[in-house]
């Protein structure tokens, strides 16, 4: 038995020596992935485009005020509200310019909603700091839009007036469809609450017609065509 055991141990030693040790394989570095090229940006005129100077994708909406008026931005710079459901001047593009800050542009007028230092709303031809509004979501899905540039500062100690806190100036349309001055507005007032409404199929058709025909017809002739389409 002892002889047999010695023979078995010797066989095991021979087999271990014959087995070649594993050589660790060198890891081949993976080829670096090609750098992602920046996505080409389009002008905001096309559907789904972006503003070159703002950098956000616009949302096309109608802003329906709790006073039952739609916010309008006219060609002549006038801001008001309309009870008409399908007014072309109430089709707006809302674009994020910063976290919680938006710019509102009339699609058919090409002007930006703005508020000056006196709290008056107007339509600006060019984008400027007065065109920036702080967007906040409130009860029942309504939004408020407060001027980022102007607000009522709190009274300092020692003044004759009653001490008051900081107050924001909101976009507001009263019960007669007229804009209210910013320093007279409050967040809880119905005139300061707006419901963003998605465009319907007829609105999308008008937008398509606007982009395809704006370079063919003169401006006034084109808007006459638009109004006739809405009446039919």
UniProtKB/TrEMBL annotation:
<dbReference type="InterPro" id="IPR008996">
    <property type="entry name" value="IL1/FGF"/>
</dbReference>
<keyword id="KW-0732">Signal</keyword>
<comment type="similarity">
    <text>Belongs to the heparin-binding growth factors family.</text>
</comment>
<dbReference type="GO" id="GO:0008083">
    <property type="term" value="F:growth factor activity"/>
</dbReference>
<dbReference type="Pfam" id="PF00167">
    <property type="entry name" value="FGF"/>
</dbReference>
<feature type="signal peptide">
    <location>
        <begin position="1"/>
        <end position="17"/>
    </location>
</feature>
<dbReference type="InterPro" id="IPR002209">
    <property type="entry name" value="Fibroblast_GF_fam"/>
</dbReference>
<protein>
    <recommendedName>
        <fullName>Fibroblast growth factor</fullName>
    </recommendedName>
</protein>
